[in-house]
Amino acid sequence: MESQQQIKAGNGDEQVPLLQAPTPISIELVHLFDKMQAVKAFVFDVDGVFTNNDLLVTEAGELLRTMSVRDGQAVKWAIRAGYPIGIITGGRSEGAKKRFTDLGIEEYYSGIHDKWEAFQSFLRRTDTLVSEICYMGDDLPDLPVLRKVVLSACPSDAVPDVLGICDYVSPLSGGRGCVRDIIEKVMKLQQKWPEY
């Protein structure tokens, strides 16, 4: 049972209950900002994060995806600001690889079944720590990394198991700006977002 403190009203005879302290959500927000402040690098899944999880299959059997140009612009700004960025995907798309290479991403891991192993390689190659990484994923293979990074993030349409553990759930879905959303929030908090 919760106890409420009492204070005396104006004339001193009447007891009036005081409101309780702020709810834990206020503490969580401070915690989230602390986590965002600690980020020094970003790692992303591809399908369901940079894309909307849909595949267009051509008559020739090619698999086509769409990606947000705004997500790509945010990646470029983050790289210019000095954030290492990595991609870890189970897919093997040459088109996606070219897109990320053109954006300036050097750490690209494709055809990956064990994302934690690839993630450890990213840490070694970029000289970063788990406590400095924001990882955004949307599905079960992302869970081993999401559980360990300082800031776990996902798009609004991630699977329930991922939604349930992430520090930050973007209001935007995969392929619709969730990448830019998390990059922009971190960079603005750290006062590194570009101004025009």
CATH topology tier name: Rossmann fold
Portion of residues in beta strands equals 15-25%
The largest sheet, given as strand count, sense and whether it forms a barrel, is: 6 strands, parallel
What gross morphology would you assign?
globular
CATH superfamily: HAD superfamily/HAD-like
The residue ranges in which pLDDT falls below 50 over 5 or more consecutive positions are 1-9
- Count of spatially separate domains: 1
- How many distinct helices? 7
- Separation of the first and last Cα atoms: 54 Å
Task: Describe the 3D structure.
With 196 residues, this protein is of the alpha/beta class. The longest helix is centred in the first third of the chain and has 15 residues, at 24-38. Mean pLDDT is 89; it is low at 1-9. A hairpin with a 5-residue loop joins β4 and β5. The chain is built from seven helices and ten strands. It is globular. The strands form three sheets. It has a six-stranded parallel β-sheet, with helices on both faces.
Entry summary:
This protein is an alpha/beta fold and 196 residues long. It has helices spanning 24-38, 69-80, 94-103, 115-126, 143-146, 160-163, 178-189; strands at residues 6-8, 15-17, 41-44, 56-57, 63-64, 85-88, 107-109, 133-136, 151-154, 168-169. The chain has 7 helices and 10 strands.
